[in-house]
Amino acid sequence: MSLKRDLVVGAALTALAIFMIWQSQGFPRIRAMPYGPDLFPRIIAGGLILAAIGIVIEGLRNARRGEATLSADTSTLPAHTAALSFVAVAALVAGFALLLPVLGFHIAAALVVVLAVPIFGGSLLLALIMGAVVPVVLHYIFYSLMRVVLPWGLLTPIAW
Amino acid sequence: MDLFALLAVVLTPKILGTVFLCTLYGAFVGAMPGLTATMAVALLVPFTWFMDPVQAAAAIVATTTTAIFAGDISGAVLKIPGTPASAAYVEDSYRLSQSGHPRSTLYSALFASVVGGVIGVTILMFATPTLTYLSRNFSSDEAFWLAALGLSCAVLVGGPSVPRNFASLFIGLAIATVGIDVAVGHPRFTFGNVELYDGVSFIPAMIGMFALSELLRNAVGGRQSSRLRLSVEPLRQALVTAARQFGALWKNVLRSATGGTFIGALPGAGADVAAWIAYAVSRRFSRKPEAYGRGHIEGVVDGGAANNAAVAGAWTPALVFGIPGDSVTAIAIGVLMMKGLTPGPDVLNTDSAMVYAIFGSFLLANLMMLVTGGLVVAMATQVLRVPRAVLMPIILILAMLGGYAISGSTLAIWIILVLGLLASAMLWADIPLAPAILGIVLGRIVEDNFMVSMLKARGDLTEFFARDIAAVLGAITLTIWAILLYRALRSFIAPAKPQDNPDTTRDTSDR
């Protein structure tokens, strides 16, 4: 388990490094500049590869000594429910980013809260109550008190 | 400097009232996730129009000082460092409060911050003339070495596995390369997104890596951890514990505050760098270095003392050159310049009243912070009693709105998402997060100064050692790197004995 994970990590880091080197091929150089914009990405890519090698060696050594890393999976939920919750929270963030300018922050925030409460184990009633209360409080703190400019979206006609 | 003259400037009812209100305001704003010390000061700017110069200086100084401390509060309670300066030890303070000691942790941090701030301003008062001389000779060469030295802290602030710390650091540095490059102005890794030309901004990055990854972990944890209702110590007991902890660590506070002041005084290195270095040094000299990053009070106290001391220190380059040590001081010095302050080597003669007011308000603000900061801590820790199903959605929405509020662009929310997922992957892979944050902070500084120096030296690398201060800094940096490399190689060639690093196989990502 541990070795397999370390191999995956090493591969991912190497892939990132190769991507950086490949991209930096296209960066322009100027004669007057002794070092171009590709220098640091290349150094960093080199560092990533060294770190990847180190992690794999470490994994091999641990495997040989027969020391398995503790499993990170401490969840009591079935694996697919856990994965679903993870994806759901990530989707909420993405949805908020997409809908914030369209719906305005009151409606978008209410939606996020109503959907998020059940994910974290709350009841539907709690979700509805919080969906009603949270946007008002946010409006007061961010908009009235702190004067942060937030989009009104659909509610623009009644904005104040 | 004349202490009585200084006190005479600030000990008026008007200034006392201003400082009191502003420390309360700074503590509240700093404690709100996503609202930083920088923002607190920025929001204050319109009000300073109606103040006289001395009052404006007092207001800004008081707000900054408390906001930097209050950043610890949301860090400990919600794992969202309120300011970058609190990021170094957020892992420790969060775990401490999760294990039932939120108040004593924060009161210890408060005491450390107050003493750190007082030490900082005392040094500032007596050393400004000398530091003026030293930093007059500062150029991009020195700044490069200093940032490079800062990067070596990655090995110290991370976990027990050296390659994993390096992986984390380089991931952070890779993130820092996003945006227009300094050498020729070519957009790198922006995927055609114009908004990314400025690079990945720090606040959303931090919210994503610390807060969202924690939310995701909680979501996966399901109902199981909702049973772990957190206990909050009674106020009295918390104060006693904190006083005892502080008493045991006063040497650390002294060391970190002194160091923090000088780091803060260097141009470009602000409170955040000071906190990282103090944390790393603290771990180095601690009797229990293995406890760091798992809820150990020592690092919290050291970092807390250093960043508040650095806030004072950061005023040195600001006053002497008009080059602020960090972004908060940048806004502050801008306001004061509009109020008639002229930064320069003669500032102590030309604007003595204002400079006295700044020093005096620093002292006053730090003392008042004991009361106002303590009040906010007592209230904020109640948050931990709130059930998870209520708290987590609120953190989620606060994190996203907080990120959005900084730039007014939904790009911030995307950054939060991407870096939150990245951080989750890193936690799964047992890679610590702290070095990556360090890489994001320092990556740009290292590259910018390197390019500026190379442009001046026409690509001659030996130029980095041509100046006295630079040569010393460079020699220190290279020596430290050589030692680190030697130790890394040695541990690889001769496999570590079990007592060498007993934690290699332990899972550091889990609480």
Could you explain how this protein is built, in words?
The complex is a heterodimer of chains A (160) and B (511). Chain A is 70% helix and 0% strand. Chain A has five helices and no strands. The longest helix of chain A has 27 residues, at 39-65. Mean pLDDT of chain A is 83; it is low at 69-76. Chain B has one domain. In chain B, 71% of the residues lie in helices and 1% in strands. Chain B contains 21 helices and two strands. Chain B has helices at residues 3-10, 13-31, 37-48, 53-78, 90-98, 102-136, 140-157, 162-176, 202-221, 235-248, 250-265, 271-285, 297-313, 315-321, 327-338, 347-350, 352-380, 388-407, 411-428, 434-457, 468-493; strands at 179-180, 187-188. In chain B, strands 1-2 form a two-stranded antiparallel ribbon. Chain B is globular and about 65 Å long. Mean pLDDT of chain B is 79; it is low at 223-228 and 496-511. Classes of the chains: A mainly alpha (160), B mainly alpha (511).
Helix-strand layout with pairing:
The complex is a heterodimer of chains A (about 160) and B (about 500).
Chain A: H1 2-24, H2 39-65, H3 79-103, H4 105-119, H5 124-145
Chain B: H1 3-10, H2 13-31, H3 37-48, H4 53-78, H5 90-98, H6 102-136, H7 140-157, H8 162-176, E1 179-180, E2 187-188, H9 202-221, H10 235-248, H11 250-265, H12 271-285, H13 297-313, H14 315-321, H15 327-338, H16 347-350, H17 352-380, H18 388-407, H19 411-428, H20 434-457, H21 468-493
Antiparallel strand pairs in B: 1-2
Helix pairs in contact in B: 1-17, 2-3, 2-4, 2-17, 3-4, 3-15, 4-5, 4-6, 4-13, 4-15, 4-17, 5-6, 6-10, 6-11, 6-13, 6-14, 6-17, 7-12, 7-20, 7-21, 8-20, 9-18, 9-19, 11-12, 11-13, 12-13, 18-19
